[in-house]
Design a protein that fits this description.
flat; about 25% strand; alpha/beta; 22 helices; seven-stranded mixed sheet
């Protein structure tokens, strides 16, 4: 019946149903819908919708935004019954379960909430497992929290190191293991939550009681050389620590909010930044164009993209590509995040009068071959960068623009003369970061028509797309890292003439396309078809 319904709706074919029924004969305890989902013949949404209809219950397609601090149940029991409460109100409790009609599940929660109305909804087992794993993670720090409370009362402990410091180290260690880039400690009315950013997405990890939150924030401020007593002003600081045999730098920022200080810790991992240009994810054709630009003896080469798009990593990789004992390299950064051997790095300090522009003026008297400017923020810095490029220096820098061609009009809008932009510009690369699919749970799937319809003219016949189902190796996310989608062009005589005449962006783009220029979306689409990322990820960062 289920199979025939799916055929009638055009979701599966007769051949797919026959294959699923064949498997069901050898695994009679498994539901047909489950087999169809495992074979990737139906999506997770279809699986949940059809199963919920069979059980005559509602379903939830994701548990990602669940407030973990509200779940106060023994994890071992939730693991056993494969269910989690997702909404606890004064008169009603909503429980998400793998099998919402299971008598054991209903019986357990009826004993816990005898006087409340219970609603059982369907959720996918992978989503429930993910929540339970996070709850287990939270349980592991409950012992440390108990020790901190004893320390705050003045009781002695048998450890040399304070429990607060051990808790901070535990949070840092888990965050690094999960490949997080940032840790957010966010105060609330009755304590704080700790969220970590993994491949661009924030995930809630732990909650802290108010006294523990205060102790943790004070200790972090001590480590980062901040004023512990100052809670009314934002502060910045940094500290270093060895974790798991590797040295890490941490940049700390505090911000006063109505409930207390919000603390964000940026994890600076040299293993990520010190990569070769070949290894950061630029596709082969764009990589060759990029390297051609870096081989030019002088001029400005720009890397563009929003905050958090990996521009610093690309700039450092570019320096590694071209720096050597025969070249003097000086960088101006705000701040210097990674200290590199053989390169002179200048930290911008506006309070002391050392701005990007003033630092650049002094750098030009230091006889450099290559100058790297962290970011061109104003016309003064831009004019000095152009002057440096026209007097024989290769200048690498970043700009905040949506695409590569927009960098030209951005420079003109900032106040640079079009003919100077034309004469000094070597090329521009624009980039975004997209998540890469976990190789351990990679599987084929069909994206929704909303994604396929606008690009059908760009697709081959019977295109195959991939995604990660979620497994232990990727913390049930389906992703294992990030890679770049890029677009890049180099200046030539014709383009230089067009820029000098201040031609419109559309005209510049038409000319570049005639020379074989491909935009970021195209680059991402190729990566999606190769199984490196998902089509949805490409749509998040680029327009077709």
């Amino acid at each position: 019946m289920v199979g025939e319904n799916l055929i009638n709706k055009g979701i599966i074919t007769k051949e797919q149903l026959e294959k699923a029924l064949e498997i069901k004969q050898s695994q009679p305890s498994k539901k047909l819908l489950e087999i169809l989902y495992d074979l990737n013949f139906i999506s997770k949404e279809v699986f949940l919708k059809e199963l919920a209809s069979e059980f005559q219950v509602k379903y939830v397609s994701s548990l990602d935004n669940l407030r973990l601090k509200n779940i106060k149940f023994p994890v071992n029991i939730l693991k056993q019954i494969k269910a989690v409460p997702i909404d606890v109100r004064f008169d009603k409790v909503v429980i998400a379960a793998e099998n919402p009609v299971d008598w054991n599940v209903k019986n357990y929660f009826q004993r816990i909430f005898p006087d409340l109305q219970l609603e059982f909804v369907l959720a996918h087992k992978d989503d429930i497992e993910k929540v339970i794993k996070l709850l287990e993670n939270r349980q592991q720090i409950s012992q440390l929290k108990a020790e901190i409370k004893r320390e705050l009362k003045g009781e002695e402990t048998s450890y040399e190191q304070s429990a607060v410091m051990r808790l901070i180290q535990y949070i840092l260690k888990v965050s690094i293991e999960k490949k997080a880039s940032d840790i957010h400690i966010e105060p609330e009315e009755d304590g704080a939550i700790v969220r970590i950013r993994i491949f661009g997405t924030l995930y809630e990890q732990w909650d802290l009681e108010e006294d523990i939150y205060n102790a943790v924030v004070s200790r972090i401020k001590v480590e980062a050389n901040m004023d512990v007593s100052e809670k009314r002003k934002p502060q910045d600081g940094s500290f270093s620590m060895e974790i798991g045999g590797n040295h890490f730098d941490f940049r700390v920022s505090t911000l006063p909010t109505v409930w207390g200080e919000s603390v964000v810790i940026r994890i600076l991992d040299k293993r990520n930044i010190l990569k070769r240009l070949d290894d950061i994810g630029i596709s082969p054709k764009n990589l060759e164009i990029f390297k051609q630009g870096l081989r030019k003896p002088n001029g400005i080469f720009l890397v563009t993209g929003p905050t958090g798009s990996g521009k610093s990593t690309t700039l450092y990789a570019s320096l590694h590509e071209i720096a050597g004992v025969d070249k003097k390299v000086i960088t101006v950064e705000d701040p210097v995040e990674y200290k590199l051997r053989g390169i002179q790095q200048v930290n911008v300090n506006p309070k002391a009068g050392l701005t990007f522009a003033s630092a650049l003026r002094s750098i030009l008297r230091q006889d450099p071959d290559i100058i790297m400017i962290g970011e061109i923020r104003d016309v003064e810095t831009l004019e000095i960068a152009i002057k440096a490029a026209l007097t024989g220096h290769l200048v690498l820098s970043t700009l905040h623009t949506n695409d590569s061609v927009s960098a030209i009009s951005r420079m003109v809008d900032m106040g640079a003369e079009p003919y100077l932009v034309a004469a000094s510009l070597v090329g521009v690369e624009a980039q975004r970061l997209v998540k890469t699919i976990c190789p351990y749970c990679k599987t084929t799937y069909k994206p929704s028509d909303a994604y396929l319809e606008p690009i059908k003219h760009m697709l081959p016949a019977n295109p195959i797309f991939y995604k990660g189902r979620g497994c232990e190796k990727c913390n049930m996310t389906g992703f294992s890292g990030r890679t770049l989608v890029t677009e890049v062009f180099l200046n030539d005589e014709k383009l230089e003439s067009m820029i000098a005449k201040n031609k419109e962006k559309t005209e510049l783009l038409e000319y570049l396309k005639s020379k074989g220029f491909k935009n970021m979306f195209y680059d991402g689409l190729i990566k999606a078809l190769k199984g490196e990322t998902t089509l949805e990820e490409v749509y998040k960062v680029a327009k077709p």
